[in-house]
Fold this protein.
Amino acid sequence: MNKMKKNELINVKGIIIGIILFLLFYCSSYLQLIPILLFNIKEITGSTQVLLSLFSNTILLIILAIIFRKELIHEWKIFKDKFLANFDIGIKYWIIGLIVMMVSNTILTFVLKMGQAANEQEVQKLISYLPWIMVINAGIIAPCIEEIVFRKCYKNAFPNKWLFIILSSLVFGSMHVITSMTSPMDLLFIIPYGSLGASFAMMYQKTNTIYTSILMHMIHNTILIILSIIA
């Protein structure tokens, strides 16, 4: 990875690895069959669904951590040694992404009368079953997985700064919409999700450590989940 030229648009090896890990991410729910078969679970309640999701996400994160262990160790040192500077950059880009996300969501909800994104409705439903487990699952584990899959893999595959940011944010936004969309109009929700994804990509690009975007993604998700719990 270190030998890539700055003006190089793509890294074939990185793209192949990225495709494999994206498919693993997309099919990770099948890991839930392990506890289902092991414990002979016959009824999937809301609470069971949350626990199964926690299980599959934990296994997926372990797999990703093993695959990228050397890079993750290296980038942890970068993050730790310049924590305050990295955190400052993370906060600034997160606020920018959050503002764009809130403005676009407001337009979609109140101007176009589209209501809440289907993905958000599903997350709210899961929070109602086991709220504090969801803090761990969606607030801590999921951001680690998504940042490795949608930021680290894409940065390795696309050395060009803007190609990385654009593709990473578009795919990130699309995955939050397409998997739960109920109508073609739902594709517009790619804008708010994608804008937040772009802010995570930019802070990673700026700091050269995935932990900046992981931390800000964790903060973002955890705040939203806690607000949902206490509301």
